[in-house]
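For the sake of transparency, this paper describes our internal protein records without simplification. An entry from our holdings is shown next, in its original layout:
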Amino acid sequence: MFESYCSRCHGTSGETVIVGPSLAGIATRGSARIEEMDAATYIRNSIENPSAYTVEGFPGGLMPPDMEEQLDRRGSGCAFSLLADT
């Protein structure tokens, strides 16, 4: 699932930028993005509501607004689990 969707736009090593920000270390960085929000919640919200957060240095609206619909329920969970461990 990750290869079919996320990796088309997000790198996973260092600060590699394809279209959107790198996902390397997102489990750590995600917990620091929004005050009083843990990384798991941040990641899930980012998948379910892509316009909820805009990473500094990137324009809003890069992620497809229907990302959750593009991922079936199982796929969304797989992507979430992978990212929460990154």
